[in-house]
Design goal:
The complex is a heterodimer of chains A (about 170) and B (about 500).
Chain A lengths: L1 H12 L1 H25 L11 H23 L6 H7 L4 H21 L1 H15 L5 H22 L13
Helix pairs in contact in A: 2-3, 5-6, 6-7
Chain B lengths: L1 H13 L2 H19 L5 H8 L8 H26 L8 H12 L3 H34 L4 H18 L4 H16 L1 E2 L6 E2 L13 H18 L19 H23 L4 H16 L12 H24 L5 H12 L8 H4 L1 H22 L3 H8 L3 H20 L2 H19 L4 H24 L6 H4 L1 H15 L4 H9 L7
Antiparallel strand pairs in B: 1-2
Helix pairs in contact in B: 1-15, 2-4, 2-15, 3-4, 3-9, 3-13, 3-17, 4-5, 4-6, 4-12, 4-13, 4-15, 4-16, 5-6, 5-12, 6-10, 6-12, 6-15, 7-8, 7-19, 7-21, 8-19, 9-17, 9-18, 9-19, 10-11, 10-12, 11-12, 17-18
Chain lengths: ~170, ~500
């Protein structure tokens, strides 16, 4: 069965990624348990604020160890991380989109909804897939104004006015 | 006849013009996002949640529920025409639906999907009406131990049914509980894990988490590779299935409805699992199973009926116990809470208009969907042709506005971006988002009921084993959790979704 073979291959490829994620969760689980301990675990008669955190954190550590052990037992494929994670993937585009979103959040109240949304949309229309400037700007204007109309004027969302005093 | 009386109350609410309008908007948007890739019902519901702030609770829930079952309809259209399922519950519909389209029978395939969905949706609403009242009566007697163990069982079933590794799904549930508990302690009002940020005192918002995990991450995954989608060029003629089609589909629709309804009550992807099981069942019952995968109409009718019936079933735990069985119901629970209504056994008595109004609106909504889907199919095909480079900035923008308008806080936008990255990495590392979100919603309830139970029992865990329902729930949950350790059972679990389909 080809499907089964494909799955085996994929589980093999997961070895190093499982190890990384298991270590991450173990660390996080420890931090949560420690935080719970500091918040006061309380007693079984009267569980405290940190009771759930402490025990859930410890359970996370236990579970991540079981993922780790399972992963260590599997045969690994060399260069798995590099091959699977970074090839064929347009990492730069993803980072660019994330950066644009973060900048948008940062400038949102300062520039106001209309200006910041317009800039974000021009970037998104233009940067990820090639498109002419005219098309990108036109699409951004239309989208910004329609969104403003729908959300601010019709539905009454409180979108920030910002620099231009619009909105 | 009490039921007729309640139905009267329900229709008097659902037929109010404003509620009809919200119902229409809900099913329309539901169909739209069912057709569009990259945004699912969960994302759309969180997007529209802020829109409902000014409306009555009835209108809000009616619209959000409409999105849910509307998406089930819309999802089948893309499965049949493009061989790309609009959402997970329509994956099986691709198998025979797309083959039917290739043979020039796209019309009857779309038609039977719409009619099958309508019939199943209607049947499951009838089931909901009959089952919910007696269950509410029983649920009134539940105490903290019963609630705690039922929630544990619900989460466990969801985890059991999750794809892939069970420890991974369990870790996601743990993370969800931890995130859900951030904020003030409900018992002594002490801030927990707030890192001295005022924004975290009320806890992390459900909407930014869901939008990040299901909206932003999906966009990120889609832009990392460009996929060109080809729409099967076919003339859509004769949407009405023939008499022979009906004869072949009647059984599958009936069986699919029953299967979907009962699996829908159980937590964890009822719609998805029931569509797969219905396909497997029909193939096994068929006298000519070799036709499956080559355009058998039963393979479209059964699963489409099942996934719609599951939506009705899924309302039962939410409306009678206040426990959401899946992520979408968790969103609805959030919506109820925002409007100051607590779903649960008392809701039927305290809020009969809302309870029955929502149920009867689903009946009206199903009718609207039938009208929307059959004549407007050409419009949905046009929507499919919108290229992704135009679509994804719009999806991102909707997410941004949606998250901001829930709380008017930029902090929530950051939370959404962070969870977008988390969701993206989760896909890469093969972790599932559903257990996280459900546990996030259940976390505070779980903790509260656990602590109350322990206070009640003076620190003895025996309270969970001496009360029959609590004990039964815990034992089933434990059995499910240890079952992967037994090789034979593990194999069975892995086979469930794939069985007979390949």
């Amino acid at each position: 069965m080809p499907r089964r073979e494909a799955e085996d291959e994929s589980t093999e490829r997961m070895k190093y990624r499982d190890i990384i994620s298991a270590l991450f969760w173990a660390a996080l689980g420890l931090a949560v348990a420690w935080g719970g301990y500091r918040l006061e675990i309380g007693t079984l008669h009267e569980p405290g604020s940190g009771f759930m955190f402490f025990w859930v954190g410890l359970i996370m550590v236990g579970l991540s160890l079981s993922i780790l052990i399972q992963a260590l037992r599997r045969p690994g494929v060399a260069h798995e991380l590099k091959e699977v994670f970074w090839t064929e993937i347009r990492v730069a585009k993803i980072l660019a989109v994330l950066l644009a979103l973060t900048l948008y959040a940062y400038l949102f109240t300062y520039l106001g909804f209309i200006l910041s949304t317009f800039l974000l949309l021009v970037f998104l229309f233009k940067a990820v897939e090639p498109q002419t400037w005219v098309k990108a700007i036109l699409a951004a204007i239309i989208t910004t104004l329609s969104a403003y109309g729908i959300f601010n004027l019709w539905l009454g969302s409180q979108l920030p006015k910002g620099l231009l005093g619009l909105g | 006849m009490d039921l007729l009386h309640y139905l009267g109350i329900g229709f008097s609410v659902a037929l109010q013009p404003v509620n009809l309008f919200y119902c229409f908007i809900g099913v329309f948007i539901g169909t739209l996002i069912g057709v569009l890739p990259g945004i699912g019902p969960v994302g759309a519901m969180s997007l529209l949640l802020p829109v409902t702030f000014q409306s009555t609770p009835e209108a809000a829930i009616i619209m959000l529920a409409g999105i849910y079952y509307g998406a089930m309809y819309g999802g089948s259209t893309t499965s049949i025409l493009v061989n790309i399922p609009g959402e997970a519950a329509s994956v099986v519909t691709c198998l025979d639906g797309y083959q039917m389209a290739r043979q020039g029978r796209a019309g009857p395939a779309l038609g039977i999907a719409a009619f099958g969905s309508f019939i199943a949706g209607t049947l499951s609403i009838l089931g909901l009406m009959l089952l919910a009242p007696p269950l509410s009566q029983i649920a009134i007697r539940f105490g903290p131990p019963e609630y705690f163990t039922l929630m544990v069982l619900g989460l466990t079933i969801l985890i059991y049914l999750a794809h892939g590794s069970m420890p991974k799904a369990l870790i996601m549930a743990c993370l969800g509980i931890v995130l859900g508990l951030i904020g003030l302690d409900s018992i002594n009002a002490r801030p927990r894990f707030t890192f001295d940020r005022i924004e975290l005192i009320d806890g992390v918002g459900l909407v930014p988490i869901v939008m990040g995990l299901f909206g932003i991450s999906e966009v990120l995954l889609n832009i990392e590779r460009t996929t060109e989608r080809e729409i099967f060029q076919t003339k859509l003629k004769g949407l009405l299935p023939t008499g022979k089609d009906w004869k072949e589909s009647a059984g599958p629709i009936g069986r699919g409805s029953l299967l979907g309804f009962f699996l829908g009550i159980l937590p964890g992807g009822g719609a998805v699992i029931s569509s797969f099981l219905s396909y497997a069942l029909e193939k096994r019952l068929s006298r000519r199973p070799e036709r499956f995968g080559k355009g058998a109409i039963e393979g479209v009718a059964g699963p489409e009926a099942a996934n719609n019936a599951a939506t009705g079933g899924a309302f039962i735990p939410l409306l009678t116990l206040g426990i959401p069985p899946n992520v979408i119901m968790a969103m609805l629970l959030g919506a109820f809470m925002i409007h100051g209504v607590t779903p649960g056994p008392l809701m039927m008595k305290q809020n009969p208009g809302l309870f029955w109004g929502v149920i009867t609106s689903m009946y009206i909504g199903n009718l609207m969907l039938l009208i929307l889907n059959l004549p407007l199919i050409g419009l949905w095909v046009q929507v499919l042709k919108v290229p992704y480079k135009i679509l994804f900035p719009l999806i991102l923008l909707f997410c941004l506005i949606g998250v901001y308008s829930v709380s008017n806080s930029v902090f929530d936008i950051y939370v959404m971006i962070v969870f977008g990255v988390v969701g993206y990495l989760m896909k890469k590392f093969e972790y599932e988002g559903a257990p996280l979100v459900l546990a996030f919603v259940l976390g505070p309830l779980l903790e509260n009921n656990l602590r109350k139970s322990l206070i009640m029992s003076q620190g003895s865990f025996a309270i969970f084993f001496t009360r029959p329902l609590a004990a039964a729930s815990l034992i089933i949950a434990l059995m499910l959790l240890i079952s992967p350790l037994i090789p034979w059972l593990r194999q069975k679990r892995e086979e469930i979704p794939k069985e007979e389909v390949s």
